[in-house]
Every structure is written in structure tokens, then in C-alpha cells.
Specification:
mainly alpha; flat
Length: 106
């Protein structure tokens, strides 16, 4: 169950990272409410995951999911550059996430 919490925490991290763009510096009420809500949910789920998962593994995977998701949505939603170098770096992050999961065991 901890891995599910961690995956969901990472997805909510992506949501709040993207939400930050829409808050316009926390000047827009509803995007700010949604972003802060996603932040809280993400942290709570991460806290639940680290009850049983190693903190270093969980934190690295959480931030990795957030980074990969933020880059992907930045490309799709905001026209961020999708250069070969950026995509290779994202691939390295994904490899790291998979490696940490495999090293951590069930």
C-alpha cells in the first residue's frame, strides 16, 4: 500500500507544480486553493508512504515523479522546449526511479 501512496503523492506533486503556474504568484484565488490543496494531499500521502518505505528512496521517487511530470506537462501545456538533452535527462530520472524501486524491494 505504501507504494500506492507514494505514486499518488507524486501525482499530486505534479498537480501542484503545474498549479503554481496558474496561481500567478498566488494572486488568483481558485488556482491557489487548488494548488495548496494538492500540496497538502501530496505531503500527507508522502508521510503515509514513509511509515514503511525508506525515507531516501521515497523522497527521491516522489521528487522524481514530480520532476518528470512537471517537465512533461510543461512541454504539453506551456510549450516548454522538448530538446534531446532535456528528454535524455528526463529518461535518466525515470531510470533512477525504476532503479530505486527495484533496489527497495516489495
Amino acid at each position: 500500500m505504501a507504494w500506492i501512496y507514494l505514486l499518488l503523492a507524486g501525482l499530486f506533486e505534479v498537480a501542484w507544480a503545474i498549479g503554481l503556474k496558474y496561481t500567478e504568484g498566488f494572486a488568483r484565488l481558485w488556482p491557489t486553493v487548488g494548488t495548496v490543496t494538492a500540496m497538502v494531499i501530496s505531503i500527507v500521502l508522502l508521510a503515509m508512504a514513509v511509515k514503511t518505505l525508506p525515507i531516501g528512496t521515497a523522497y527521491a521517487i516522489w521528487t522524481g515523479i514530480g520532476a518528470v511530470g512537471a517537465v512533461a506537462f510543461g512541454i504539453v501545456l506551456f510549450g516548454d522546449p522538448a530538446t534531446i538533452a532535456r528528454l535524455l535527462c528526463v529518461a535518466l530520472i525515470v531510470i533512477g526511479i525504476v532503479g530505486l524501486k527495484l533496489a527497495a524491494g516489495p
